[in-house]
Structures are given as C-alpha cells and as structure tokens.
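Morning!

As promised:
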Amino acid sequence: MRTEKTLSFQTEALIRQTIRTTLHNKMKSLDEAPGSEIIRENNNREQESQSETSHNKSPLLADPWKPCRRSRATVKEWLLKLRCCLGAVCGIEWYGYAALGVFTAILSFLMDLSVTKLLTAHRGLYMKLEGNSLLQFFCWTLYPACLCAVASSFSHNICPFSTGSGIPEVRTMLAGFKMPHYLSLTNMSTKFLGLICTLAAGSTVFLGKVGPFVHLSTIIGAYLSNLCNLIQANNKEKAGGEMLVVAAAVGVASCFGAPITGVLFSVEVMCSHFALRHYYPCFFSAACGALTFRLFSMWSGDEESPQALFKTNFPAAVPFYSLEILLFAFLGLLCGAVSCCYLACHRWMLQFTKTNPMFNKMLTTEKGLYSGIVAFLLASLTFPHSFGQYMASKHTMKQLLTSLLDSRQWSSQSHNASLHLGPEALLEWSSSGSPVFLPLAVFLLMKMWMLVLACTLPLPAGYFMPVFVYGAALGRFLGEGVAYMYVSSTGLTSGLQWASINPGGYALAGAAAFSGAVTHTLSPALLAVELTGQFSHAVPVLIATLLANALARSGHRPSFYDALSIGKRLPYLPSLKKACPRLPSTPVGQVLAAILVKLQKAAGPVEVKLAVNTSTDSQIPVVDSHESQIILGFVLRAELLMFLRHCESEALEKHLDEVCCIHPTSVLLSPHNTVQEAHSILRLVGAQTLFVADRGRLLGLITWPEMKRILEDLSKEI
Amino acid sequence: MRTEKTLSFQTEALIRQTIRTTLHNKMKSLDEAPGSEIIRENNNREQESQSETSHNKSPLLADPWKPCRRSRATVKEWLLKLRCCLGAVCGIEWYGYAALGVFTAILSFLMDLSVTKLLTAHRGLYMKLEGNSLLQFFCWTLYPACLCAVASSFSHNICPFSTGSGIPEVRTMLAGFKMPHYLSLTNMSTKFLGLICTLAAGSTVFLGKVGPFVHLSTIIGAYLSNLCNLIQANNKEKAGGEMLVVAAAVGVASCFGAPITGVLFSVEVMCSHFALRHYYPCFFSAACGALTFRLFSMWSGDEESPQALFKTNFPAAVPFYSLEILLFAFLGLLCGAVSCCYLACHRWMLQFTKTNPMFNKMLTTEKGLYSGIVAFLLASLTFPHSFGQYMASKHTMKQLLTSLLDSRQWSSQSHNASLHLGPEALLEWSSSGSPVFLPLAVFLLMKMWMLVLACTLPLPAGYFMPVFVYGAALGRFLGEGVAYMYVSSTGLTSGLQWASINPGGYALAGAAAFSGAVTHTLSPALLAVELTGQFSHAVPVLIATLLANALARSGHRPSFYDALSIGKRLPYLPSLKKACPRLPSTPVGQVLAAILVKLQKAAGPVEVKLAVNTSTDSQIPVVDSHESQIILGFVLRAELLMFLRHCESEALEKHLDEVCCIHPTSVLLSPHNTVQEAHSILRLVGAQTLFVADRGRLLGLITWPEMKRILEDLSKEI
C-alpha cells in the first residue's frame, strides 16, 4: 500500500514536472509570439545552431515503439547526419524553396507533355477522317465535350474545391486566412488531372493553365513547408505564410519559365503590403522553377540551350519608330475599353448563372452534363468546315499565339502573292482566301462571348492565357491595320521601308495590355517580354499596359478575380472594398462580437474552471475586476489548467494573479479603428489575438476566425 | 464708446467663429488621421469631386490685397479652369508622377550631355599634346584633380549634405523619418553641379551617377508633391510619402531608361514592407521617365527608335549551352566572395578615415585639397604612358562597359591575327601586345583598392556603376578563360563551334552578380537585361546574382549602403540591425523617455495652461486621474487653447472633459513591444503619435522624432 502511494506520488511528480517544462517552453514561445514575424529573422541563425545540437528533440526520433528498431535507427542516424550537412550550408527552408520550384516545374512540364499527346491524338484522328465531314464533325465536337464532362464530374465528385482558377482563393490565403480545404493533396491531384482534361479540349474551349498552376504550387508549398517544419522542429510556426507567398511566384514562373514575372505577380497578389523578407526567397524559388522548366523543355525538344517559350524574331535594329508609341498608347486605351466590356459581360454572366433557375439547377446538380453541352456547343461553332474556318480554329492556343506574334505583315502577303514568307501561319488565318481582317474580326467578336460562356464551366481551368491570346488578336488587328495604311500611303514601291512596321509588336502589346486590364495587374507587361525573349518592345508594351490598366481600374470597377471573389463570398478585403467601398472603413466597434469569457485578476478556482469549460481559446483575457473592466493582459489556457491542478492538489483557495503569470497584451486596438486597420495590424504583428479596448476597458477580441466572420457578415450586406 | 464695444464684441465673435470652424475642420481631419494612410484610397475620388466644386477655398485665391488684381484674377480663373480640366481626367497627383519622370529624365539627359562634352574636351586636349609626355601627364592628372577639388569644395561650402551617394539618406526617409535638410533645392543644385564635375573626371576617378540621381529625383518628388498638395488643397498630408517611393523608382529608371528595374529597386529600398498602392504609380512614373530618357537619347543621336543604353549583339540562336549554367553559378559564387572582400576593405577604410588623425583632419577641414590629392594620385596611376596602358584607362566608363560586354572572344583574336573583328575595343585592352588576361588581371587588382580609396572622396558620387563595371571585368576574365580553355581543348580547327562560348555573357552575369552582392539587391539582374536589351541571358544572370547575394548576405554582413548608414549614424533600422542584431528587439519600455505633459480628465484651467506652456506637441494625452494614470485618449492643443479662452472669457472654473472632446487613441502599444514593432506600426497606421500603456496606465508616447532619438541613442551603444 505504501509503495503504491510512493509510486503514485512519484508519477504525479513526474507528470507535474513534465507539464511545468512544457508550460515553460510554451510560455517562452508565446513571449516571442507577438513580434515573432519580425524578430524571427534575427533568431533564425541562432535557432539553426541550436537545432544542430538538439537532435534528440527531433520528432524523427519521437516514437521508439515500432518494429525494425535497428534499421530504423540506422536510417534515422543517416537522416540526422544529412540534416546536419544540409543545415551547415544554409537553412532547411532554402532546400524547401528549391524543391518547390523544381517540383512545380516538373508538374508543369508533365502537364504540357500529356496535353500535347492528347491534342496530337485528337488531331491525328481528325485528319484520318478527312473526306467524311459528318464523322469529322463528331470527332471535332465530341472529343472536347467528353473531356470537359469528365473533368467536370471528376472534380465535382472527388474534390469540389478544385474547380475554377484558384487565384481568388490563393489571394485570400495570402491575406492571412486559413482555408485548409484548398490545400489538401486530394485537391491537388484532382486539379492536376482535371486540368489536363480541360487543356486537352484545346482551343475550342479556349482555357489556360496559369491560375490552377498557382494553386497547385501553393499546395506543394504548403506540404513542403510542413516538411521543413518537421525537419527543423524548432520554429514550428515559421515557414507557413512565407512558403505560400513564394509558391505564388513559382506557379507563374514555372508555367512560362519566366522568373521575374513570377516575383512581380507575387508582389501584386499580396493583399496590401509585400514584406521584403519574401523577396529573396521568391526570386530564388522562381529562378529554380524557371530553370528546371526551361531545361526540361530543352531536353524534350531539339534546342541546344534553354530558350524563351514563344521566341520571336522582331527586327532588333529599328524595332519601332518613336511616333508609333502614340499608336501603342491608343492600343492600350482600346484594350482597356474592350476589357471593361468583357468584364461587364463576365459579371453579368456570373449573376445570370446564379439567378436563372435552369442554369442554377444545372450548375448545382448536373455539372458534367452542363460542361459537356457547353463544350459541344463551343466546338460545333468552331468546326473548321463551317464557321471555324474564319477563326483559325485548327490552331492550338500555342500556335495561335505564335502566329499572332509573327513579325511579318499578313495583309501584304495575302494580296501580294510573291511574298509567301509564312505560309503555315497565314494559311490558317486566311484559308478562305479572304483578307486577314475578316478572320481577325470574326475571331474577336466570337471569342468574346464564347470566352464568357467558357468561364462558367465548373472545371479546373485558368482564365489568363485565353485573355492574353485575345489581347494579342486585338493588337494584331490594329497592327495589321496600321501596317496596311502605311503601305497604302507610302506605296509598295518603297520596298524595304514599310517592312519595319511590325504587327507582331502590336500583338505583343495588345496581349499584355488586355490581360493586364482584365486582371488589374501590371506583370503581364513583363510576362510578354519574358515569353518572347525580346526586350526591344519593353517600353511600348509597358505603356500600353499602364494605360489599359488606368482605364480598367477607373471608377473602382472590380477585376476578373475580384468578381470571382465577390461571387464566392471569399473574405478578401480588396475585392470586398470594390463591391462596397465603405466596408473597410467600418469601425471595429460596430462589428465586434460580445466577449464570452474573461477572468478578473482575483478570480478563484470556480471562476477559472467555468472559464476553461466555456472557452476553447488558447488566450483568455484578464481584467482588473468585473466592475472596472480594465484590461491587464491574458493568461494561457495551459496555465489555467495548471492553476486548477495546483488548487485541487493543495486544496487552497488562491487567486489567479498569485499563481499565474498575466502576460501583457502586445497591441491594443480601439473600437474606432477600422476593419482594414485591424486586418493590417493582425497581419503585421503576427499575433493570433488582438484585444480591443476603449479607454482601458476590454471590449472584445479579434482573431483570424473572428476577422473572417466579420468580413463574411459584412459581405452579406452587399 | 458703445459702438466701439459693439465693434470689439463683433470682432471677437468673428474671431471665435473663425477659430471654431478651423477647429472643426482640424478635428475632422484628425478623426481621419489615424487610419488615413489606409482609408485615403477610398476617399480620393470623393475628395476630387469636392475639390472641383470648392474653388473658393483654394489657396490660389487666398490673398486678395495684392497689385494687378484684375489680371491676377484672370490668370487665376484660367488656372482654376485648367485644374478642373486636369482633374476631370484623373487625380492631380498623376500629373505630378508624370512630371517627376519627365523632369528627372531631362536632368539625367542634360547631365549626360554636359559630361560627354567635358570628357571630349579633356580627350581633345590630351590628343593635341601628343608627343610631349610631360604635358600629357599634367593634362591627364590635373584635369580630374581640379574637377574633384572643385566638386568637393563646392558641395562642402554650399550644402554639406550633398556629398556621397544619397541612397542611405533616401532609404531613411522612405522608412518614415523626416530629413528636410536633404530635400532642399540648394542641395539639389549643389548635387547636380558637383556630380557633373565628378563624372567629368572620368574613368580615372571611376565613380557613377545612380545614387545621386535617386537622391535628385527624391528632391524633385518632394517639391512636386508639395505643388500637388497646393493645387489639390484638400488632402494636405497625402502625396508626401508616396511621391518619395515613386521618386526612388524614377531615379533608377531615368538613369538607364530601365523602368522595370526602377520599380524593383524601389521595392528593395523600402524598409520592410512595400505598400501595393505605390506599385502602380511607381510603374507609371518610371515608364514616363524611361521613355523620356530614351527619346531624348534618340533625338540627340542618330538612331531611328528608342534603344537600350548598352546594346549587345549576343547570338540569339544558341545564347549558351545548358552546362554553362554551372559556370555561371560558379561565377556568382566568385563574385560573392570578391564582394565580401571589397566590402571588408571598404568598411576598414571607413573606420580608418575616422580614426586616423591625419585623414580625419583632412576630411573635416580641407575637403577640396584632399579630393584633389586623391584624384591626382589615382590619375597618375592610370596615366596611359605608364601603368594605365595595362588598365584600358583611355576608355570612359561607358566605353569600358561596352567593350567588356562585347560578344566576340578577345583571346582568340589576339593570338589569331587573321580575325581582326573588334579592333577598337581590343586595341585598348591589349595595346601592349600582351594577351588579354594580363590587362584584365591588372585592372581587377588595381581598381579594387583604387575604388575603395575613391569612395572616401567627399563629393557627390554614385558607387553603383563602378561596381557594375568591375563585376563585368571579373565576369569577362572568367569568360575569356573558359573560352580559351574551350578553344584549346576542341582545337581551332572546329571553326564555328567555339564561337558560341560568349565571354560577353559572363561579363553581363558578373556585372549583375557583383553589383548585386555589394549592394545586397537583386534588381541588378534585371538591370543587366534592361541595359543590354537582350533577354537571352536572363536566367543565368539571375542565377549568378542570386548565388552572389546568398554568399554576400550570409553571416549578417552589412551591405555597402548599410556600412554608409552605420557610419553616418542614420536611424535606419535594417542597417542598425546588422551592426547590432539585438537592437530591434529591444522592448520599447526600456528606451521610452519619461512623459512630460499629461492632463487629467478633471483638469482645470490652471493645469491646462501649464500643459500648454510646457509642451509643444499637437496631441496631449489625457488620463483618468494622476493617481490611476488610466489613459482615456488625447486632446488637441488647439482645443486646449480654445478651452482656456472659453474659461477666461466666461470666468468659469470648468473641467477639461466638460468642454473639450477627448479623442480616443487609435492603437495602444505595450512596453513589451519591440522597437521594430513600434516602428512598423507607426508606419502602418500613419499616425503621428502612438501611446504606450501598460495595463491601461499611460507610460509614454512614440512619435517620429522620438523614434529617431531612440534609434540614435541605441546606435551610440554600438
């Protein structure tokens, strides 16, 4: 009996010791927490050196009750040695960034490869049926319809979060909100396979891959950051947010092999402030991704060195005359105006699919069927033997862009039979023998509403590339017009002179300007340069993009992604701001939920027990007394449990402040602070909880879930 | 008597009415102040529309007691109409951004023009003296010596703040500190003229123009923002900070005609967070600047279209083999290592000039003499008839860079007489008939310490371009070596094959990597691409720059600008952090000054009078009572004056809270917040004053001057 008691006493002492050390560690980490995001950089190196000396704390060695202990131990030892070696060169997270770039690029390359195979198969089948128009029609239409139906039902059944572009969700996560559904492995595989089907449907459905790739790389980033945290074991909460920002850059970079655009995109996608400590990791990871993508593309092709994706041959000596800059500016304004029109159609369509009962029913219950029907409709319109001959519909997206960026003038070639310079590109665009303006005009008119319709398809798809190609066609149209006018005015006699008006340059500027205007970003300007590998048109492209953006942003119109965000009711502040400009300046005090649990300084065990049972928060606020409500700080839940145990074991009636440490609050908000300020400060100080107090009296708490609730509530009023 | 009294009464009533309305307006603007930086975006459009309807409030019409009223009124009317027209298109500040770009570009162009003239004059004189070595020596040495002496004494006597690069000061201002001395017009003119002298001293002194140009554009930006504020008249405090961020981008963009680099530089130069609302203005202004600069360069030269500054002719088909990427990575590491060495020498030199009594005395009293002597020394070492023949010293900086970026291989040309492809470039580098490796090695060894010495010169000068050229030489050295080895191993027989190793590509990568490593930035990678107008080497250049940066940043070594910041004791947090890693994590409570003036809620006129006489702050904190010290908010100084007047006139003993409105504080800090957090929050919320309270009790205030004092005090302990 006595030994039993001693044993139990010893056990209890042991447990209490364990709890105390855990508590101590937790408190230590919490003391660091408020400023963690900022101080962390300093501590990095110290923590690294600590991690090298503290192998035994690693979770790799955590559970020793498993089979094959000896071999496991050997493997572990080797892993630990590897970790030491890796850690000696640089922090583990850098390997994570590199791996993120490489993995995303490999995924991107694999996707391109399989899509090309599927497209070739379709084309081969279509060619074999030459002569039988009906069979050709079915081949042309049913193949994309089936693929879209498969993509749609597959993604709907396995992971409904995988449809759409993913960029609105990524933006919301980068703004600080947790959305674990969007970062699951199921989502990744569904999105990957669904996207292959979508892209294999080809230029009839006319959808791209950028957005989903940003999403895919974000998922990879989230998993890699977990892995890095597991290996590092010390700074648990570190790499999460950082890796997501980096992943956004990598997604774009490894889609096109364009590292600098990737970083600029990441800067633009961040909510309101881009933290400079992400800058270097973004560049590093994007460079890894772009290099891997280009090397793979090189090895699969016949090139001798990594090349740009859409290499152009613009004349380098005189890329454009200085007066042409005015035309580029006009093109920018034109693109801005057309983008406003496109965005208005898109918003109307979004609204229509929600309010129209038939559409709504189809889109909620029969997604596969809907996708199949829409794809069939689109494909039958682009059938090459009917209307499609005026729309260069045999071209894939890549071929379309290449042909549009061609530096030679089409119009002169079509009415000057002696100049057959680019037969392939031109044949497709003027197969009917008509001048090139007609197919371009038909393409522009038809693709506008077809694209709006395609955007309603519930499958994983990107909406950037189609817009880019559309813009290129718009630019080409203007460019061909200018070149034609120039030729007419100077006459064909002046031989070489007119060759220097390059319609390809207009196509490039148009692509950047239109896609920039639709997404309200400037990075397409750099993307246009990086995609073609030619810097000669950088300045006019930038000017066109700036002007198009200016027009598209005027009047606080929402961008394409804003419209999606608002439609999905995502708690993304800049989008909500466009739907309701007064929203971010709502005072916090108006929307704050009543505070459920708070303790007074002199709280006894009964009050503490009640608080612990009622609340699940990790930080519980402490006030001076329930009358004065003056906020003193907060206590940790773990400490309260400790306090209860202490009181129970010693059967003493102690007050809270005699036993527990009351941690001071880091930053106090006033109820007059706006929602936007609260959001910014929450992100900046990296704290999990902000306290709102008025003249010292506690009013409420703001946590990330609370912020999400506030934004969702506010957006319901729109 | 009675009328007099009535009159005086009327006057008093009028005055009180005026005070009340002023006060009301002030209070209104103050209510907006705390979140102003964030909310402002929303209000912009509304304010614009207000400004259109409220002409009469404009300061342009403020004082009607001046001569020529009629003509003035007409001019004013026209100006107001112009303002209406301009404001109808977009906000006035956009014209400011455009003007900023254009003005800076014109300045940059004018400077290039005058420097070219001065350099040509020097060269002409030197050529005329051909045959007389002694006279040539004096011409070669005294010209730069005199120019440097003039630049030095000129800038010392007129505006001592104009010496040096200016980038450390600009960074400090962008971090939020006011430094009006550095933004005066005197400073601008002194810097401009001094810089012309420095640049005209040529490649013997080996200094550049980027840094001072960033400073110059910041000054122009500050003035333009004042002008915009004057015209807008409504949102007084608006454009200040914004225009400075934009100006940093414009400085770089209009120096090289490289808009995207400019924006990336601006992102990198920001203290810790880049606000996205600056992104679009930066691009817009940088594009205006770059376009103007290129157009002016075009018009002054014979080109037909705006071209890149250092146009290269790298082969586009196979720019490099994929295995060469490893060599580029090695080059990056080499550049990183050399940059560490260079930075160590530079820091030692900075320390030496401070501690050595002779240097110290020279640099404080005889700046002109010191500059002259050093320039004479540097020039005599580079005299072409002696040591200079091994250093290509006849080349200007521009020619040096052009020759280094040449895509043809020098080494093969020097020992293969039949291949005289680039006589001019090569002649200068191997005039002595020796192989090209000797002059390159001599150049690298000599320029290292010459550059360190030149950095001590007390005149307006940039330190980026020399480093860029030095890096190009380093890259060229490796590139020539690789090309030579490749030729040796494959033999000269395989004709065309070896031509594809392009030493110019290595020079480009080296330039970007070395300058990036010295300044701890990544934008030089993009600058290298934008300067040459060729995108083919973008990926290897980026990789080299990343690796060089990684090596240079390891071990928390300060960058070039950090060393200058620390030397000048500027309150720039990221630099101070490198000198003393614990500094930013110092709790605010430790360094807070005692609070001098606070009022209690129930303060009477006597206490208020005392407070008003003691303090000059615009916001005076109010506590519950002097015993409890619970903070309630603050009152405005203007309101206190009103309160005193009220009490005096009505001879009543009232309490503060009965008359004045106590404004709630926006964000409360705790004394446990670190200095870095306080700094970030101060910037983020755009408030002028932050209150520090512990458990509701007021401890102190943090304002920008207070923050400056704290940082300066802390940096004294280093």
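The beta strands of chain A are 273-275, 599-600, 619-623, 631-636, 667-669, 689-694, 697-703.

Hope this helps with the figure draft.
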